[in-house]
Design goal:
mainly alpha; globular; disordered N terminus
Length: about 180
């Protein structure tokens, strides 16, 4: 029978795992998309703190303008959706919102485009950094679909083809295994 750690040991283990997931997310999205939609000075600060000198990237592609190719309006709406539900005002949470928004523009599952080990790791980061948004996903919808559903809800656009997701013909695409 496994035991659950308590106190300082569990806290340190959780913090280490979050830091590790943050590093993989920042590095994974930057490697795939060459931008996080951050201003150059913000990206430089992120790189110093999390990616270090071993991660080299042509600085000319890491500009806010680089997001034009990544559908800038959509990227901005996703960042805003995340930031209104952030759990804290840390730089890490701001950077992670931009990272997630950039990865949402990819073609794979969100956790894959972020370079994470699985959906559970993404869920953990969302729970820690964007708690209220995480808690809204009560039916465990796939994260990217959930974010876009939330954007549509804000604009009062109906996303489901049926009156409720449970009876929609696309239910498996939104809630199926990843």
């Amino acid at each position: 029978m496994a035991t659950v750690g308590h106190g300082h040991e569990a806290s340190c283990a959780a913090t280490g795992a979050i830091d590790s997931a943050l590093v993989r997310a920042f590095a994974g999205v930057t490697a795939r998309f060459r931008t996080l939609g951050l201003a150059p000075q913000e990206f430089a600060a992120l790189r110093r703190q999390y990616l270090g000198e071993r991660f080299h990237l042509d600085e000319t592609v890491v500009e806010t303008g680089a997001c034009v190719a990544l559908r800038a309006d959509e990227h901005g709406e996703l960042v805003e959706l995340l930031l209104v539900s952030r759990a804290d005002d840390s730089k890490e949470t701001f950077w992670l919102a931009n990272t997630i928004a950039t990865a949402c523009l990819g073609d794979n599952h969100l956790w894959q485009d972020m370079g994470l080990a699985g959906r559970d790791e993404l869920s953990w980061l969302l729970q820690r950094h964007f708690t209220s948004l995480y808690e809204k996903n009560v039916d465990n919808m796939k994260w990217k679909k959930f974010f876009y559903k939330e954007l549509c809800r804000r604009e009062r656009v109906v996303l489901c083809k049926a009156p409720s997701c449970g009876v929609c013909a696309d239910y498996a695409a939104c809630f199926g295994a990843e």
